[in-house]
């Protein structure tokens, strides 16, 4: 994406040429991937011509000027469809535009479609009954990850230069890892959620999925910051994240968890992760092994918080249109309605004290925590079909987000990048997590790793 923006700024390529390249890859791969829900080629062509005219006139250009993108279909844009991957909102047309889209518009980007996703962002595999499952660009039998499945698959297949996703329990990082691209979940409150379909008030995050950490850094600099339309958004100053990406790790200390995150990890994942950490150590980053505190409590609490808040958001539709949900979604929402209020209050009240102790015991000793994004090799769509698959489908699906949801409860920034491939040719991801508002730090490590490796540059099966 950064290279595409540079090419437009310097008149090496037109915005219209960038758009045509996206649609050529959509035409080539969409029938197999099912990564999109709707497309607006003619509207995008008008935007491209307008962007090219601005370049020709010598107008002041934004950081994303002339770059076409499609996004997870849960970001509202006035007058455009927004299905949220659901039957219930299949014909919904918003009357407002999400703040993040407005900020990207102001930086010169434009949108051309809505991308496939898990229904209401409520699963980690990308299964979708209404619009069909999204397939992994590296192997069509396998999951693309969820819930931002179409965003990651489309970026991987070069259908879009970047895409926005949402992350409540790992829904940016999981598909980024599964599809071999880069995705960052920012600090809770770092990015406005105004005009975005919610799932959990306390755990939802908005962030970019792109090919590189540099691309993610540029987009995050555009979309982060306080928004009066979202009173929960932070007023913390937004740095120029891209300016910090110099490839140098300096004395940044890397922590490696000895508990939970690597427990029961598939061997190919553990080997790729170890090799990636050794690579960082060779570049001068001190590496320290350490036990992780409070993980059992964190996972119990995050399940309570997400479940109760999702059930609250969907309560009216669940009363009136239960039959319009996929069984795996409605069964989760029904079960969440039975969680006692005392459990929910406890889960929220313990969040601050646990975060304080976690920061002291972990980030008091290291700057960045490295973990495998997904602890297992990427499973197939059939193996994880909770509604119609094998009896162990639910257990296998839950393992996909076993390493990510904790950082939603803690509200910490976390970025996933590709660090290898399993024996089936599916990507493996490594995540870097930092202190609150340390996006610059985790992106710096991710970018340094990508400057030394080429995993993120490889082309998936659908482009072979």
Taking the sheet with the most strands, its summary is: 8 strands, mixed
Number of helices: 16
**Mean pLDDT, rounded to whole units?**
97
CATH class: Alpha Beta
CATH architecture: Alpha-Beta Complex
Low-confidence stretches: none
Q: How many separate domains?
A: 1
Strand order, biggest sheet?
6-8-7-12-13-11-9-10
SS elements, strand count: 13
> What letter string, H or E per element, gives the SSE order?
HHEHEHEEEHEHEEHEHEHHHHHEHHEEH
Helix content: 25-40%
Under CATH, the topology can be stated as Amidase signature (AS) enzymes
Based on helices, strands and strand pairing, what is the structural class? alpha+beta
Q: In what range is the share of β-strand residues? A: 5-15%
Overall 3D shape: globular
Name the CATH superfamily classification: Amidase signature (AS) domain
Please, could you describe this protein's structure?
- With 464 residues, the chain is of the alpha+beta class.
- It has a single domain, classed as Amidase signature (AS) enzymes (Alpha-Beta Complex), CATH 3.90.1300.10.
- It has 16 helices and 13 strands.
- It has helices spanning 2-9, 15-33, 41-56, 99-106, 149-156, 173-179, 213-223, 267-282, 295-313, 315-320, 327-337, 341-349, 351-361, 393-400, 405-410, 439-452; strands at 36-39, 68-72, 110-115, 135-136, 139-143, 162-166, 182-185, 206-210, 254-257, 287-290, 368-372, 414-421, 427-433.
- The strands form 3 sheets. The chain has an 8-stranded mixed beta sheet with strand order 6-8-7-12-13-11-9-10, sandwiched between helices.
- α2 runs antiparallel to α3, α5 packs parallel to α6 (173-179) and α9 crosses α12.
- The longest helix is centred in the first third of the chain and has 19 residues, at 15-33.
- It starts with a helix and ends in a 12-residue tail after the last helix.
């Amino acid at each position: 994406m950064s290279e595409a923006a540079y090419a437009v700024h310097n008149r090496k390529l037109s915005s219209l040429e960038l758009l045509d390249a996206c649609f050529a890859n959509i035409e080539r791969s969409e029938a197999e991937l099912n990564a999109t829900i709707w497309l607006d080629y003619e509207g995008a062509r008008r935007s491209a011509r307008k962007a090219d005219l601005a370049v020709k006139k010598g107008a002041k250009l934004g950081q994303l000027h002339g770059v076409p993108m499609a996004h997870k279909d849960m970001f509202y844009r006035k007058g455009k469809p927004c299905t949220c991957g659901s039957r219930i909102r299949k014909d919904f047309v918003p009357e407002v535009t999400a703040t993040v889209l407005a900020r990207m518009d102001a930086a010169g980007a434009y949108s051309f479609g809505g991308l496939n996703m898990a229904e209401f962002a409520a699963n980690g595999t990308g299964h979708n009954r209404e619009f069909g499952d999204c397939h992994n660009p590296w192997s069509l039998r396998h999951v693309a990850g969820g819930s931002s499945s179409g965003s990651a698959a489309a970026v991987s297949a070069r259908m879009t230069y970047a895409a926005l996703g949402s992350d409540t329990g790992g829904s940016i990082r999981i598909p980024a890892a599964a599809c071999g691209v880069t995705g960052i979940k920012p600090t809770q409150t770092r990015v406005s959620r105004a005009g975005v379909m919610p799932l959990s008030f306390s755990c939802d995050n908005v962030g970019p999925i792109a090919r590189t950490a540099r691309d993610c850094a540029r987009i995050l600099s555009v979309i982060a910051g306080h928004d009066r339309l979202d009173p929960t958004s932070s007023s913390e100053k937004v740095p120029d994240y891209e300016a910090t990406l110099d490839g140098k790790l300096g004395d940044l200390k890397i922590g490696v968890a000895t508990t939970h995150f690597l427990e029961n990890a598939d061997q190919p994942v553990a080997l790729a992760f170890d090799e990636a950490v050794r690579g960082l150590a060779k570049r001068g980053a001190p590496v320290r092994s350490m036990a992780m505190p409070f993980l059992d409590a964190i996972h119990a609490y995050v399940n309570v918080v997400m479940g109760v808040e999702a059930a609250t958001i969907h309560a009216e539709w669940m009363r009136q249109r239960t039959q319009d949900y996929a069984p795996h979604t409605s069964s989760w929402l029904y079960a969440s309605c039975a969680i006692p209020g005392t459990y929910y209050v406890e889960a929220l009240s313990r969040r601050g004290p646990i975060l304080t102790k976690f920061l002291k015991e972990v980030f008091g000793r290291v700057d960045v925590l490295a973990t495998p994004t997904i602890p297992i090799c990427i499973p197939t769509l059939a193996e994880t079909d909770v509604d119609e698959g094998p009896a162990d489908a639910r257990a296998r699906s839950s393992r996909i987000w076993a390493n990510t949801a904790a950082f939603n409860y803690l509200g910490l920034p976390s970025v996933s990048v590709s660090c290898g491939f399993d024996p089936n040719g599916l990507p493996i991801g490594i995540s870097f997590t930092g202190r609150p508002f340390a996006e610059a730090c985790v992106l710096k490590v991710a970018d340094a790793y990508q400057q030394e490796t080429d995993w993120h540059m490889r082309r998936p099966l659908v482009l072979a």
